[in-house]
Specification:
2 copies of one chain form a homodimer. Chain A is built from 17 helices and 20 strands. By secondary structure, chain A is of the alpha/beta class.
Chain lengths: ~550, ~550
């Protein structure tokens, strides 16, 4: 039997586009004599469809897609993830299902048992969990068909009381298929491999795994579809961050189990954290623009490392001709803020303009003079400069139909070291899930062969340049210290006692955690952040604004 | 036996404050000879504590609060909602529990069975559902102790397959206690009464019900704690929107059941939709400021109905002396935009200033002239004016430590008829869950006895005044039509076919739904919206930005 894994990029709610893509893949698989093609979880409607799933009109369209695709399943079978109306009244309205299409119709349906409902996942908001187990019989093989999280409890995941594969083993399956929507994070690739290998070796069964690739606003899917043998080794892997399709020849061994063959097997790849992050962010930018129908990005260049990195990533994602960098110096801007920005624009070959903000800033100050007169220059005046820049950038974006890219980093978003409606403006936060120390690492990685981001930008001391001789270190501890505390608190959810126990001063820890919690109101209004860690700001982290915890 | 219902306002994460409040209530109840005092769901930590629940440090503090409160439970018992660590490894880390405290210690714990996980509720994100049922025995009575949603399945709620009261009936309880965190919406009071009455009559048992009052950022709790008899009638009700405590005397009837007596029973109140909305929004503003430690609000007055209404509500919530209204006319502003605003400020007795934006707007236009020169005046220029106002208002808010109140309404938030970082600025959206037609209704209600909001503001045609002679009706259908389509789509989740079937033109419905879905990116960055409907923008409505559904 020939099995084709089809790792595709889908567009949430674009039923026609997603179906056409799958139908084309089915026709292509037929042409190479494949017997079964496998697509990802919720492939018809895209993942995550979020509250669109609550519209019966939306579900009807997904069900129509399945019927339409089934018409093409003659001489080949297909496995496709799609939402399904729960036929009984009790329980949630939907199942998260895997359809087995063959002979031009729906032959079998398997529903998802373990529904992730943590971090960015809300599946129990929409879906009823499966409670009845069955396998698929096809061409003499018994297939254990599972959906993503169904494999994520090897009796060691405290979130679940069921282990679906234990149930499926009573049917003596020959192999496992898992269709997934497993978003990228820097830790996810190795965790996913461990889970797949762990299941394969525990149950002594090969696994065929198909994931999404592509980006849906804040979530990035890296693909990494693969095949394991019954010993738990990954014997072939599809490429990461691109669409990819591959066909495998399987046959029953004379003794027991199945053998799997493919052309040019791709051994398990060694991952580089910063290469993966770069690819993820580039994909995230590119698909955000494509899916919204935009072509060009605009951004403010400060001469600092954050806007430099975003410029590089955007140019890679959209083409250098589609990036418009604006330098917006004030009277507090250093000379190098412009010269370093110009060097960057030259290296990246991107277009730029210089628009000083001093006149407008002074105009604001004039209007406010009745109330600001006699007060000390402070945060309000700093914010005014940042917001003047935001208005200019948004004006250009609106006038010419571009998207403004946000350049905030995770460290500053965490402690509120940024101006809401100022440098926090933008349609997409590109590096909002990277701590400042990670931004340096990523830039060093980008510069590994040649100086793409000017060295001066990497070595100068970080500054917001909103008052004379200002430095980030005036109000924040060194970034290595800050990021370590933030990582403990945000990613590892440690309380103050534990973090102090890691060797930080009590006063500093309390001050930093208080800054994080008191700035929740700013993050509520932040743009969507491309998620690359296991705990990004945004829908995966839901924290009260008016709470009084550590604040 | 004497039972005291204690309807209090809690502050999320403020363990010390919440505990002190409950301890004071316990001491007060002791002084009137009460045997049992009942507090609301998750009273120790506040509701919703959201992802704070994922911090073991936070849970420890809740557990400490319970111990501390238990020390005061001598000669009286208390029922208190609090999170509890799941003692077994399998399943989610926590239970949503009701503690029964007596004799200075924890005597019993009951866990919540039905976990709401829809709209603004995310309980399955944190809590494992209860699967074992038991009652509480106290002073000769058998109490069926339930937590909020546990009563919300009378065999007719498709979300759940369990009906906790069916299970509890095997123990022959004498009455039911339900501790709740049931947020206000215009439909909720009658739904809640129906559910309580339905349970009481179905099981022939009286119910003692305790809800939260207060506001947690976007959510408002109206209280409405009450007692039903065994026939399903509400025999006494605590006041809405205020803290309230009341004690009942119960005794066993000679035949069967219990009799309930109280001083001055408060019969079931007749609710007025707009009175409730006004009270809810006033409470929402007041507690947002209190809980964040702010006192004064600033807002922009346009001469329109939205900012007029917000000014009135804010003055009522914070005191007229704490409101600073700013009029920010441009060259496109009508004369009445100022005169009507002045009349309003006079009626409300609030402070005001006038700050024309023309100079700063022209300064922006000058800076942008290289690129804007020769183009047609359009949306970009309209947004520039709105953003100039946003910068001035935020500048004043930052300088003087005030909170800027947002004045967007639900109709314009829905179709994107507003400027991100302009009139969409603010720390809290006060009327973002009110359609424009509801805003007129609410203002008419406010003016029922005297002209508080000047009549001219209520009768003029709505306009953003961002270009000459602009009217909302230039780009939008009449608000009665628009709001009806929006209500069908947002609250009732109808698809286009259904809405067209309600008598709207296909072209109009498609255009409006497309506007709603294409403006998701703006709402992502909107301030928290005080929720008064069953489907508000914000955490209760989770929609993809880069999706392609009806867009």
């Amino acid at each position: 039997m020939k099995i084709t894994l089809s790792q595709l990029s889908f567009h949430t709610g674009n039923f026609e586009g997603n179906s056409s893509k799958m139908i084309a893949a089915i026709e292509q698989a037929k042409s190479v004599g494949s017997d079964l093609i496998v697509f990802a979880e919720l492939a018809t409607c895209g993942y995550p469809a979020r509250d669109f799933l609550e519209f019966s009109d939306f579900i009807s369209q997904a069900e129509n897609s399945i019927q339409q695709i089934a018409n093409h399943c003659l001489g080949i079978a297909a496995i496709i993830g799609s939402p399904r109306t729960n036929p009984v009244k009790a329980g949630k309205d939907l199942y998260n299902s895997a359809y087995f299409l063959s002979n031009g119709k729906i032959e079998e349906i398997v529903d998802k048992t373990l529904l992730p409902n943590y971090d960015i996942f809300d599946e129990y908001r929409y879906f009823e969990p499966n409670r009845q187990f069955k396998t698929i019989s096809y061409l003499g093989y018994t297939i254990a068909l599972t959906i993503c999280e169904d494999l994520w409890n090897l009796h060691d995941n405290p979130m679940y009381v069921t282990t679906p594969m234990d149930e499926l083993m009573q049917f003596n399956p020959d192999f496992v298929i898992n269709i997934a929507a497993s978003p990228f994070s820097t830790a996810q690739i190795s965790e996913r491999r461990n889970i797949l290998g762990g299941n394969a070796s525990r149950y002594h069964l090969p696994i065929f795994y198909v994931n999404h690739i592509g980006a849906q606003t804040h979530l990035i899917f890296d693909g990494g579809s693969c095949v394991t043998n019954a010993e738990g080794s990954i014997i072939d892997e599809l490429d990461f961050f691109v669409e990819s399709t591959k066909t495998y020849d399987i046959s029953k061994k004379t003794d027991k189990g199945i053998s799997i063959e493919t052309n040019k097997p791709n051994p398990i790849s060694i991952r580089n954290k910063y290469e993966d992050i770069e690819n993820a962010l580039v994909l995230g930018i590119r698909q955000y623009f494509q899916k919204l129908g935009f072509k060009k990005a605009i951004l403010g260049l400060s001469g600092g490392i954050d806007s430099a990195l975003v410029s590089y990533l955007a140019a890679k994602a959209l083409g250098k001709e589609n990036i418009w960098a604006i330098m917006l110096p004030s009277n507090f801007s250093s000379e190098h803020s412009i010269s370093d920005s110009l060097a960057l624009a030259k290296n990246l070959e991107i277009g730029y303009d210089i628009m000083p903000i001093e006149n407008t800033f002074q105009s604001f100050m004039g209007t406010l003079d009745k109330h600001f007169g006699g007060t000390t220059f402070g945060l309000a005046e700093e914010n005014l400069q940042s917001r003047t820049r935001g208005v200019l950038l948004m004006g250009l974006a609106n006038k010419f139909g571009h998207i403004l890219l946000n350049t905030s980093n995770k460290s500053e978003l965490a402690v509120g070291y940024g101006t809401l409606y100022g440098d926090m403006c933008g349609g997409l936060s590109v590096i909002g899930d990277l701590y400042k120390t990670e931004i340096y690492e990523l830039c060093r990685y980008i510069n590994r062969n040649e100086e793409i981001i000017p060295e001066a930008i990497l070595t100068k001391e970080p500054s917001a340049e909103l008052r004379p001789d200002q430095k980030d270190s005036d109000s924040l501890p060194p970034y290595e210290v800050l990021d370590s505390i933030l990582f403990n608190y945000i990613e590892e959810r440690m309380g103050p006692t534990q973090i102090i126990g890691n060797g930080h001063s009590k006063e500093l820890v309390q001050r930093i955690l208080k800054m994080v919690n008191m700035n929740e109101w700013k993050r509520w209004q932040a743009p969507p952040v491309l998620r690359i860690s296991k705990k990004a700001f945004g829908p995966g982290r839901r924290v009260p604004i008016s709470g009084k915890y550590l604040s």
